[in-house]
């Protein structure tokens, strides 16, 4: 299993990144919170998970090993595939997800696009006894990607939201709702803006 890749970022899109590892370009599918923090030409380390299917081998990349471990845990639940697990980690942090599952907070879980009440109940039933064991002992100081300037943040955030399944109209509306954050602080990272935009979409 490929658990981690380290190298220079040679290309990055809204939901993917290519990292040069020893002259080989490794493409990883990433959530928008991760790609928003990657910059072409920078060195990056991504925790990865290889998903094997009959007709494909797909590598998923994450800013932290904790996100990767939770991604793999979520996929052990019935009806949860890579895309849904990735969306869950874009909307909620690993700690938020763990808390929602342990406390049976179905409202929080249904904020994830594609998760209804029955799906949330299934996740709670199947993972409640596993979340703490899987994430126990994970260091909190693992280095993540460096933040990038907020130039062209709107396109990055909008494309990332659309990659998670929201419409272009909803994505643009979310960008408008968080635009004041960029205006108030020119140094705010795209990842922070992405998280804020996701929170506005997750509200009932």
Overview of the structural elements:
- By secondary structure, the protein is of the alpha+beta class.
- It folds into 3 domains: 4-62, Nucleic acid-binding proteins (OB fold (Dihydrolipoamide Acetyltransferase, E2P)), CATH 2.40.50; 65-135, DNA polymerase, domain 1, CATH 1.10.150; 153-202, Ubiquitin-associated (UBA) domain (Helicase, Ruva Protein, domain 3).
- Helix content is 46%, strand content 20%.
- It contains 10 helices and 5 strands.
- The chain has helices at residues 32-35, 65-74, 82-91, 94-102, 106-109, 117-127, 131-135, 153-163, 168-184, 190-202; strands spanning 4-12, 16-21, 24-30, 43-53, 56-62.
- Strands 1-2-3-5-4 form a 5-stranded mixed beta barrel.
- Helix 2 crosses helix 3 (82-91).
- The longest helix has 17 residues, at 168-184.
- The chain is globular.
- The chain starts with a strand and ends with a helix.
- Residues 139-151 have low confidence and may be disordered.
| Helical residue percent band | 40-55%
Quickly count the domains.
3
What is the number of E strands? 5
Mean pLDDT: 84
- Would you identify the CATH architecture of the largest domain? Orthogonal Bundle
Biggest sheet: strand arrangement: 1-2-3-5-4
Q: Structural class per helix/strand content?
A: alpha+beta
Query: What's the CATH superfamily of the largest domain, by name?
Result: 5' to 3' exonuclease, C-terminal subdomain
Percent of sequence in beta strands? 15-25%
CATH topology of the largest domain: DNA polymerase, domain 1
């Amino acid at each position: 299993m490929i658990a981690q890749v380290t190298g220079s970022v040679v290309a990055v899109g809204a939901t993917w990144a290519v990292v040069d590892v020893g002259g080989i370009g490794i493409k990883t599918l990433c959530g928008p919170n991760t790609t928003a923090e990657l910059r072409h030409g920078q060195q990056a380390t991504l925790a990865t998970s290889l998903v094997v299917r009959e007709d494909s081998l797909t590598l998923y990349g994450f800013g932290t090993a904790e996100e990767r471990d939770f991604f793999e845990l979520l996929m052990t639940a019935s009806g949860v595939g890579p895309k849904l697990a990735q969306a869950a980690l874009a909307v909620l942090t690993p700690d938020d997800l763990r808390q929602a599952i342990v406390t049976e907070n179905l409202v929080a879980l249904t904020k994830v696009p594609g998760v209804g009440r029955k799906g949330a109940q299934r996740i709670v039933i199947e993972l409640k006894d596993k979340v703490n064991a899987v994430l126990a002992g994970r260091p909190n100081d693992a280095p993540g990607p460096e933040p990038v300037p907020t130039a062209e943040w709107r396109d990055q955030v909008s494309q990332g939201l659309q990659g998670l399944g929201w419409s272009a109209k909803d994505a643009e509306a979310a960008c408008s709702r968080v635009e004041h954050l960029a205006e108030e602080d020119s140094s705010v990272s795209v990842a922070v803006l992405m998280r804020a935009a996701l929170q506005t979409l997750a509200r009932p």
